[in-house]
Write a structure and sequence with these properties.
alpha+beta; four-stranded antiparallel β-sheet; four-stranded mixed β-sheet; 5 helices
Length: about 220
């Protein structure tokens, strides 16, 4: 875990530049900050990192089929969904399937067992439709991978592996400024790829069951 300013300074030191007091010290510091976020996105997209895993809770109420998953934003991935009250799975279905059940046929009420995705609501949350329409109060759980927002403030923190983020940002900055007699951008990208591979290997070892194919 590292702050935005820490990451920027780790890159600046490798570039033989003076460390910054804020992410906006000067134009070059701001540029390095953009590269840190670009590098973070590369690392973030490489794996369903444990530190990005979270469980969101939705309280379903009687007679209301519309709900929202709060705090996930738009950059997320579903891992699992279940009705904790009835201890049963929730199945994700398409909007077309939901329309068939609720518009083209008489909608039913009962314990929610399916859901479909709607638009992102006015608060930036994912709207969902439940089926059947709840006939009581239910606690629904959604296991998700929620990607981090771009880092902006000095104290903003990323929970991603630090080393590959720093190395990718350093490689990008070296490529942008050109050769300076030190390591080439290609060499640094190679170091970054290895650091990312090492981090992926550690994560994969922790979640071996997710990498095992089973006949169903």
């Amino acid at each position: 875990m590292a702050t935005y300013l820490d990451l920027i300074n780790k890159v600046l030191v490798r570039l033989r530049e003076t460390e910054a007091l804020t992410p906006n010290d000067n134009e070059y510091t701001q540029l390095v900050g953009f590269m840190v976020n670009d590098a973070k996105n590369v690392v973030e997209s490489a794996w369903d990192w444990a530190n990005l895993r979270t469980t969101k809770t939705v309280a379903a109420t009687v007679g209301v089929s519309a709900a929202s998953i709060v705090g996930n934003g738009q950059n997320y991935k579903f891992m699992d969904a279940y009705n904790a009250t009835t201890q049963s799975r929730l199945q994700l279905i398409t909007q077309n399937e939901m329309n068939t059940k609720t518009v083209l046929n008489t909608a039913a009420s009962g314990s929610p067992s399916e859901f479909s995705l709607g638009a992102i609501d006015s608060s930036g949350n994912q709207a969902i439709t439940l089926y059947p329409t709840p006939d009581g109060s239910y606690t629904l759980k959604f296991d998700m991978i929620v990607r981090e927002a771009d880092l902006e403030l000095a104290a903003d923190v990323t929970n991603l592996p630090t080393q590959p983020v720093v190395l990718y940002a350093w490689a990008m900055a070296t490529r942008e400024r050109g050769e300076t007699g030190g390591m080439s951008a290609q060499e640094i990208f190679g170091l970054a790829d290895k650091a990312l591979g090492d981090a992926l290997s550690l994560e994969a070892h922790r979640y071996q069951a997710e990498l095992t194919w089973r006949a169903v």
